[in-house]
Structures are given as structure tokens and as C-alpha cells.
User: Fold this.
Amino acid sequence: MSGLVTSSSSLKEFFRELLLEVAARQRVALGESTEFYLVNLLAEFAATDKLFSRDAEGRRDHEPLAELYHRALQQEREERIRTLRRLGDVSLYKVGFFSGALQQGMVGPDYYIQMGGAAYGQVAELVPAGGFTGVYRELCDKFRALVEVLEEISARGLMSAGPEGALRVYESWSRTGSDRLERVLVDAGWVPRKGSLAN
Amino acid sequence: MRVGSRARGRLPTDAADFPLVGRLQAHLEAIYGFRCEARAEAFVVVDAEVAALLGGTGRAPEELLVLEARGDLEVALYLDPALRERMGRYSGSPLASVLEGDLDGYCQVTEGVSHFLYVAHTAHYERTVSLLELEAQAEVDKFVVCLLHRWGEGVAGWARELLTRLFDQVAYQPLLSGEERWRYEEANRLSRRFCTRLMPHVLDRRLDRLLGDLRYAYRLGAEAKLRHLAHGG
Assistant:
């Protein structure tokens, strides 16, 4: 997706438009603050490698969710909020953008959905009342729906990146039969609309 | 057999020099459904003198230079500076615009990447590869890479245009030896027959069938592949 963007502000604008469009299409209503939170999350992970932690040699490494959760349990309140929020963010992004790969891994997408949703729920309990409580509560309650929104955002981003991206979406659709991916492919002309005559 | 880079570290082969190479490899990998660990951009050589030292003939704007030594396969992908300059003009534009502006240049880079990927793929499975097989596969790759840029409504017209431009309106280098000339003409004939057989899938926009046929043919080796391209058998 990096080929589509030139600056942080245009990246945020790009994701904002896409988020609003896809959420509306999927009929997922979002509070303004939650929408703002998600746009920042998408832009931050897309523009940097914040999805990854670094190992001792500075190499990019995936920190297991269970490890993050275990660490959160040992921490004081402020640190725990930060760790749980990262757990929620990483889970949401990974399961939204890489669900195809997760399906072939040792733990499937449901594990990420449960861990991420629960983490946001705990953050909602830990943060002071008011402020961002509602955002974390909404992220927890709508986690599964948000995963589907992110899946479609990811697919539309891939489609616009060129035929190699489109083929990746096509492969995912062939494997999962997802209606959402089919709609993305149909919209881009890669799969004929049902009942239409080809060429 | 291992694919190594004879030129690695000696030349400015940063992917940023020729980003199209990486894009084309990703495109071909997506079409054929595998990922090659070796990345073509790390093997690119743009200096003609170095290419000559590595065995390049200098007769084509792209050449895959291969040396087999002690069980290892050493590879360099020569792309001449003029080709890089031509392609560089499109670096800030959508990739599809290259098809409008310089289909020939785009196909030349595709051919080099196709050779690299096919050699790496066959080496991985410890198979030998003939030059005819390599050339025929590259012709198929050029057709399908360009085809998928405009997959969707109207692709049939584009496919017909590609068949004409890639297989009929062909000119060969005058300096080719008789054997080389025969090989290019035969590769053209075989790949044209195969690509023409793909047309019903294109007309029906059956991507599943198109990819299925392409992937099957890609994985066939040597004589079986050439027979399949020629006759489907």
C-alpha cells in the first residue's frame, strides 16, 4: 500500500475516506472518536513498522499475543493500559489485514479476535471514566465487525496497487468464498457480475 | 542447487535503481502461485563491461547470465542502462501507463525477470532447463503479465492486440546466429499456440481457468512443457 501514498496527512485522508466508505457499505456505525482512532491506527501501521517489535539484534519480530498479555498482567495500571491497547491494536490490524495468512497459522483469526476484543474491553475498564472509555468500549463491542471492515479496506488497497495485489485478493476469495472479497473483485471488474455477459 | 549472486556487492544493484524488477517478480509469482526466495533486483547488473566479463554477449538489452560451478548456479541479470532510463520515465506514474508508453521496454524487462524466475524455479527442483523452454516461457509471461494489467471488461480486445503485437509483429536481431534465430522463432511459435488456446478463458473472463492452465504449464519440464505448449498434450 505504500505506493499509494506520499505523506502522513494524505495517508490519513486516504484511510479516512476508505474507512467511511467501507463502514457505511457494511452498515457499521462508528462514533467520531472511534473513527479517528482507527484512521490513526491504520495510518501508523501502514507508514511505519510499528506492527513489529524488535529482537535483541534489532530484527523485526512478531511479539506473540500471549506474551503481551502475560506482560500486561505483571504491570502497573498505566503500563498495563499501554500494553493492552497495543494488544488490541496489533490483533485488530493483523486479523483485518492478514487474515488469509493467519488461517494457515497455528492459531486462527478467532484467537486474535478474542484476544484483541478482550484487551480493548479491559482498557475500557482501566482508563478513567469519560474521555476514551467509550472508544475502547466500542472497539471491544464491534471488534468482529471492525475486522470485516479492515479486511475490505485491505482488499481495496491491494486491488489499487496493481495486478499482483488483485491476484492476492482473488486467491483469498478463491480460498474463502468471502462475499465481501467477491464484491471488491466485481467492483474492480476482475470477476464478472453474476448474471452478466462477459465481454 | 543454489542460486547465488555472482555480482552481489560489486555493483549498484539496489532495488531502488530498478523498482520495476521487483514489481514484475511479484506479479509473476502471483500468477504462478509461488514465491522465490531469491529476489531478482539483487542480481541486476547495469554495467555492460561487467556483463561482458560475466559472459554477456551485449546483443540484447536484457540477458540472464548463468554460470554453473560446483553444484551452485551463479546468476546475474543484465539490463542495459538505456532500458533503465526508458523505464525510469514511468517511475512516478501508474504502472499501467508503461503499457501505453513503452510496451516494448516493459516486455524486455519482463523477459529478463521471467528468465531469472524460471531458472531459479527449475534450479530449486534440481531440474535442467533448455534455452528453448526458457524463451518460450518468457513469451508466455510477457503475454500474461500485460494481459492482467487490463483484466476486466474489454480485456478480450486487449488480448487480441497483445497476440498481434507480441507474436506477429516481431523483428529479430540481425546479429543472431542461425541456431539462435531458430530458437527465437520456435519459442514464438510454441508460445503463440499456447496463448491462443488461453483465449476462451479470456473471453469468458475465467481467471480460475486461466491461472490453472498457466500454472500447470509452468510446472511442466523440458520436453513435456514444449509438447504441451505446442499441442496441449
User: Anything to note?
Assistant: Residues 4-12 of chain B have pLDDT under 50 and may be disordered.
